[in-house]
DNA sequence: ATAAAATAGTTGTATATTGCAATTATTTTT
DNA sequence: AAAAATAATTGCAATATACAACTATTTTAT
């Protein structure tokens, strides 16, 4: 029935979210950090160099939250800060060598994991799964009501 | 290419996770609570009545964390606690009338949202999307290395 | 029947996270 | 030159988190 589709969709997504949450917590813990710190490291690592406000936008968190999180990672020697020479309001945030090592390890572990997951999907279904996720993502985005919200 | 499938899969999942994170934060904020509190309310509401340890298991958090979270919601009048008569070590946790109202509102909003998302998927693709999510979930679970971890 | 072990939940401790408001420093606009 | 805007930090206060230790209760072993 049509009005059960959304329900089942949500159930599947919630189970998926939960399982991936466990994955990430375990991964973060193995690397001696919290989940939030792990998210920050991954976002910085992926961007290479990023401003604080950009990072806040990427992670959808308040800039004050990110400022403190980055401060904490800076104190641990994982992150570096450089005032932008052209515009001294900006701070350019990137990973230190140590930070890159941590990032690399997490990245490898997650990459390996998702390759294994992908390989566990029946071969003739793999393209369908990817296509379906894209369709779902498009639908999710289509139903945003505004830039940061999803409800009316 | 085979070794790009996992990469693309992960990218899609991360974008999806992010968008849904924004959705939930907005929803929680609209109901005057934090995301974590929202998770707790939804878990209790769905279970009807649940023990603290069960709740901790459902949310994959330490029982001490849940104990304090439930305490906070109790103080707000959203949650009730009853010592189990048969075994006084147990506390039976459920929602108060007020808690049920909050739960009902969040549930309706999320249900509506996911119905809209589902309806935005091209009709001939809907079954495929659901099937694909199920396949993906199975693959994710197949690659757990232990009960609470996903890596080795 | 009693003691030991196990379980459920709470509390102490310490750290981390979070966002709003206010602040400082800098750049842009008027 | 002054006002406005922007980036980031800090103050404030609440919430969240997990480990360890604890209390109360039940189960298991003796």
Automatic annotation (TrEMBL), chains A, B:
Q: Which domain of life is it from?
A: Bacteria
Q: Which InterPro entries match?
A: ArsR-like_HTH (IPR011991), HTH_MarR-typ (IPR000835), WH-like_DNA-bd_sf (IPR036388), WH_DNA-bd_sf (IPR036390)
Task: State the UniProt keywords alphabetically.
Answer: DNA-binding, Transcription, Transcription regulation
Any idea where the HTH marR-type domain is? 2-142
A Pfam family that this protein carries is MarR_2
Please verify whether the record's keywords include Nucleotide-binding: no
Which GO-annotated molecular functions does the record name?
A: DNA binding; DNA-binding transcription factor activity
Q: What name goes with this protein?
A: Putative HTH-type transcriptional regulator YusO
Q: Which organism does this sequence originate in?
A: Fervidicola ferrireducens
Q: Which gene encodes it?
A: yusO
């Amino acid at each position: 029935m049509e009005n059960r589709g959304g329900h089942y969709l949500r159930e599947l997504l919630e189970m998926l979210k939960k399982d991936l949450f466990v994955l990430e917590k375990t991964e973060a813990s193995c690397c001696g950090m919290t989940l939030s710190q792990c998210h920050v490291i991954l976002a910085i690592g992926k961007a290479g160099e990023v401003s604080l406000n950009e990072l806040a936008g990427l992670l959808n968190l308040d800039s004050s939250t990110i400022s403190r999180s980055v401060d904490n990672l800076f104190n641990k020697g994982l992150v570096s800060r450089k005032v932008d020479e052209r515009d001294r309001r900006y701070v350019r945030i990137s990973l230190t060598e140590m930070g890159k090592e941590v990032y690399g390890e997490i990245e490898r572990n997650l990459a390996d994991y998702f390759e294994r997951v992908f390989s566990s999907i029946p071969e003739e279904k793999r393209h369908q799964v990817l296509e379906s996720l894209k369709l779902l993502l498009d639908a999710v985005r289509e139903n945003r009501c505004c830039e940061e919200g999803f409800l009316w």
